[in-house]
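Workshop exercise sheet. Pairs work together: one partner reads the sequence aloud, the other fills in the structure field after running the prediction. Swap roles for the next sheet.
Pair: D.N. / O.F.
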Amino acid sequence: MNLNKSQIIELLPHREPMLLIDELRDIKKLHSATAIMNVKKDGFYVNGHFPNQPVMPGVLIVEAFGQAAAALTAHGLDKKTYQNKLVFLMSVEKARFRNPVVPDCKLELKIEAIRSHGRVWKYKGEAFVSGKKMADAQWSATIVDRK
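Structure field:
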């Protein structure tokens, strides 16, 4: 099963320019998926990070991991369980940035849910460009009521 950007928009509260993922592929319900982020030359961070040598900030790679995990989780849960909820990042562990991610490329984010306990979920992920590992991390998130 795959989700396109408009289907992701139905699951996540994020909107442009902060909606980073463009597609969610190879979804295994509540277990794993691969998110695609098209890193573009006109990305909102390009002009200032860094002028004449743009690099995608590592914190945005972590944010993309989090969005992919939130979409995977929202897609797998019963809609009534997820309706009027938000997913908040709780912690980031073991984040490693191995190679710079530069525009124009397709960033593939392979994510996996490691475990869940109530509203708290733990994930791990690896980011690749053309098969080369760019980053990896583990993180925790929680599902909370929307105010």
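Discussion prompt: The mean pLDDT is 95. What would you look at next?
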